[in-house]
# Entry
Amino acid sequence: MVVQKLILVLMVVLAVGLSGCNMSISFNDTSEPTTSPAVVTATPSDTAAETTTFEVMARQGWQNSHVLVSSGDRLTVKYMSGLWTQQTNVVEAHDAGDQGDYICGRSDCVEPYPDYPQGALIGRVGPQLVAIGDGASFTSQYTRYLALRMNDGDDGLYDNSGSVVVSITVEHTTSQ
Ligand SMILES: [Ca+2]
# Structure
């Protein structure tokens, strides 16, 4: 009788145990999301061109365009709009180009670019001076910010007026 009772108890325990068993077997998903190794696809580009616009004031000296140029970069500066003059009420307002105006051309000239017409647009990358006028392209010899101004002496800026807007395009070369 004792053995039968024991078996009965065991069966009850077993039945309770089975019914109480959570049949839903949860697998612990330890598998990492399948990630393919990151492939860095560097787009091979020989040149990348950036264009910005800048207003050059007639009454100011060298003005930082905040366009950083690296040595070897190809620069294009083009006149877009605006009028200025190097002598208000004397010389009629004109664009950034060479108007055939006075060229100093001497060593004691006050103009930053003595061999270029007074009142025209000029540029500078460090010590590299560039005649721009209504448009010019050149290769930078230095890594500096492009500066622009009217070709007029610092002492002659007081009677200037107006401004010109230019577009500045830099083609960065990655041949280094
Ligand atoms: Ca002037």
Remarks:
- The two ends are 98 Å apart (CA to CA).
